[in-house]
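User: DUF676 domain-containing protein. Structure?
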Amino acid sequence: MAAPPLIYTRSTYSPPITSPSSAPYCSSPSTYNSIFTPLSGANRGQRHENPRAQAMSTTTHGMSPARTTGNPKNDPDHLLVLVHGIGSSPGDWTYAEEELKMHLGKSFLIYASSSNAYSKTYTGIDEAGKRLADEIMQVVKQTKSLKRISFLGHSLGGLFARYAIAVLYSPSPNTYNSSQPGDPANSVMENSQRTDFSRGMIAGLEPINFITLASPHLGVRGKKQLPFLFGIPILEKLVAPIAPFFIGQTGTQLFLTDDKPNKPPLLLRMASDCEDGKFISALGAFRCRVVYANVSYDHMVGWRTSSIRREIELGKPPRQSLDGYKHVVDVKYCPAVPSHEPQFPPEAVKAKETAQHTQNIIEFHEIMEEEMIRGLQRVGWKKVDVNFHSAVWPLFAHSSIHVKKKWLHNAGVGVVAHVVDSLRQQETSSTLPTS
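Assistant: Predicted structure:
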């Protein structure tokens, strides 16, 4: 039976998708607890007291590191790229970098990207993604010891990273099957996220983790997707046409009104494999994909768009923090959901044209949101919910989730600790000997 047409008729690539038939759509937190042991507050304090940890990792700030020398066994082999959000700079990662450097070990090269600082974030997700890809290639070329790569993106940086990995992606001749006997420890988390996508490489390196913090994966158009508008329909309609005057091409892309009416918005194309890039294959190449989402108090990015969920899937925001990770309230594993490529039907073309010229958005964002969700759910995700309801300054949630300024946003230290420990857990599982 012929496969449904892609959103671009000129694109013919359509990888097979599988999903564990016996697995629920999203597993309960008990599954998480069975494979990931959080460090207690006391244990975390002991980690911070270790004076040797500070020198165990290499960190760079937006400059290509010098070519590694000396004993190759002491050189970093895992590149962790930090990507900041809109109107920001590598300085946003100061606290997170310190924590990552302290606890991940000497095998990591932690690199805070600087190619899209400040106003460069307004030039479009695609342009920023290409600059980020070029920057990463320079790092890889000058650090010969690198073998693996991971990404950590905040806010718009998560979209920049998604575009960049498609630019950097190269397919592998071998497929990665979740039933391979060599899977280390048959990890529940890895099995729930693996697909039959070609394993592939990113910048010639093995892709390990792809993590985003409060990133607008579905754009910001629609009810409460841009929370500072308070869900007021008239404000949500008015802001779309004026956004480009403030944040340029990035604004049209986030509001899904970029390009010609008959061309799918960039964010929809980024939920598929199309002529612009193998976006889903690139995501599927990573061993682990994680989205951290603020369930409330985030004035910039709504819970739905940052967690890649439908509104009916949200439910009541959880409030009880996980043991050892303050404000991290829930973790679920969502295996891949089989689906054909996202569509851009004729009614969407008409709705987009209307949205580009009037304030009446009809059901355009609803059509696009459903298609983007179906596209992105073709790979598995771990979804981590964060709730700053008990923080002293809960309205700083968007900056607190990655501790932009420690003196002001320190409510997010538990979230950063969760990211660090998740990376350590994945690093341990990826280096276990095969059975």
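The two ends are 39 Å apart (CA to CA). The chain has a mean pLDDT of 79.
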